[in-house]
Amino acid sequence: MIPGFGHDTWWLILAKALLVFVFLVLTVLVAILAERKILGRMQMRWGPNRVGPRGYLQSLADGIKLALKEPIIPFGVEKPIFLLAPAISTIPAITAFAFIPFGPQVSVFGHWTPLQVTDLPVAVLFILALSSIGVYGIVLAGWSSGSTYPLLGGVRSTAQVISYEVAMGLSFATVFLFAGTMSTSQIVTAQNRVWYIFLLLPSFCTYLVSMVGETNRAPFDLPEAEGELVAGFHTEYSSLSFAMFFLAEYINMTTVSALAATLFMGGWHAPWPLNMWDGANSGWWPVLWFTAKVWLFLFIYIWLRGVLPRLRYDQFMALGWKILIPVSLVWALIAAAIRTLRNQGYPHWTPVLVGTSVAVTAVLLYLLQRPFSNRQLRKKRRRTESAAAAPLEPAFPTPQLPGKALTPATKEVANG
């Protein structure tokens, strides 16, 4: 049992669970509106500006519209699984947030309780397991629809999650090494002095890329690639079922953003220079710092969608298997060696860790941009042009076209 947990009364546990649910729903509503308005400004347009004052009620109106629309179930679907799939995606996404700490212990009507629903000694692994369960909803939705395009979207999502969950798990390993625990609340406590983003920068960069791939967001939105798959795995869904998939996607974005803040940015601890104030990390103020960090990562999601085009599938898979996973493995070995030096009393382990972290991060960033650099693109273009310019030798006899002579290679095939 984690200290401070397991002693709350039933009404306090219920109140915290309801507050987490309300926080997630409100965050989704605001995130959808903010995304549409920010992308509108990036693309030199207004975005939503009709429903409510300056369009601020657009997300609420869209939610009410989806809830009131008539659900359509196509002929030939596996009806029980078709109806269950949205719940399989949504429920784990909401449950995972129960392990995220919002702040320290506070007094609520005379009861001292941590601002967290619950915690486990392996809470981070439990969150990772819940995110893995959520992908079954996508796969089952594609399969049960009885259509080709949703099935392709579900299969793509399976390969995508497997690829990027491996890299994400390896980025967690170094945090576990230096925190000495897998509990989310104790990982935040371990960052009381120095955040792990400064000590474990390669792990943070790996997690930043992996969390975008894990949540199927641009430029990694291949399971839903609207331009080529007609909305992907949820093509046959409408009304409230479609809204649940939409809700699960944005809740997953919020959960992985909160996990990034928890593991690498001190969780609810105040940033510098606010942490110099004695009351910054006590009371209800930490909820504000934590929420600001979550919204920082949500803005990164929106920014990436506005500035980056979608990757090809081969580029996407190569990024995970050929770059993120090998670099994460090497960095985990280096971090384990430095942790061993720390345990043996080596006095200068912190400068060695920071210097090595910066060097590995530089290598990772170089490898990430290399496939998309101008030099590599020019090489690929030259290879394509040379292959197109080379005469193709037919593998079977080709009759002579009117007014054109046969090439030597065609004559040999024709005469042979």
Automatic annotation (TrEMBL):
Record's GO cellular component terms: plasma membrane
Catalytic activity: a quinone + NADH + 5 H(+)(in) = a quinol + NAD(+) + 4 H(+)(out)
HAMAP family listed in its UniProt record: NDH1_NuoH
Source organism (scientific name): Mycobacterium cookii
Keywords: Cell membrane, Membrane, NAD, Quinone, Translocase, Transmembrane, Transmembrane helix
Compartments where located: Cell membrane; Membrane
Primary subcellular site in the record, as a coarse category: membrane
Organism taxonomic ancestry: Bacteria, Bacillati, Actinomycetota, Actinomycetes, Mycobacteriales
Protein name in the entry: NADH-quinone oxidoreductase subunit H
Entry coiled-coil feature ranges: none
